[in-house]
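Hey, I'm writing a tutorial for new members on how sequence and structure tokens pair up, and I'd like a real worked example in the thread rather than a made-up one. If someone can provide the structure for the chain below, I'll link this post from the tutorial.
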Amino acid sequence: MLIHADFSQPIIITPQDYDWIRSPGGEVNRMMLDRIGQEKARATSVVEFSPNSQFPEHSHPLGEEVLVLSGTFTENLQQDYPTGWYMRNPHQSRHQVSSQSGCKIFVKLMQMTEDELHPTRIDTHDPKNWQVTQGRLICPLFTSNTEHTFLEKLQAQQVLRESVAHGIEILVLLGELHAESKIYPKGTWIRLPPLSTMQFCATDLGATIYVKSAHLPHAMNVWSDQAPL
């Protein structure tokens, strides 16, 4: 399965474009944003857990990244992560996941390197995890040689100053962005390839966004010639 698998092409998906697909075991609904492979896949998705749903224990080659968008996401039947929690489970980690109340998560699979060894857990709703850097309100999430990942809060009409020249990925968590006379509401996912020039600005509503930059050259090197798994 190949979905938006050409990392040299720009992709913008708004909530009105969402097409939910049930997982083979019926555990969750998935909006597949990009994908290379079948059930074992390099994938970016929005995933919905219904109340009292669970996913069997499984492993994560090349890791898993999760941002809880709503509800409460539970690991191993004991550790609850409510809205706003960010986690990274490294290469070959294992867990069981569930949700008693139901939840929605943004999840990225098989997008880490094998040398990322330690899990990450960050409560992005905790003010202590936010910092002002050169006039930007940032919640750092992860930085390595192959990616820079963070949340940013933009005030009304504030311009996103992160460079898009080396490729960028954005998920609008709250508020709206606008660019080139178009408005991108909460739930919009944007992936722009290297050498892009598009500039984003918050509308009068302001915006809170997830941002990953500098990662697409690595993705292109590793995955561009891969056949579906």
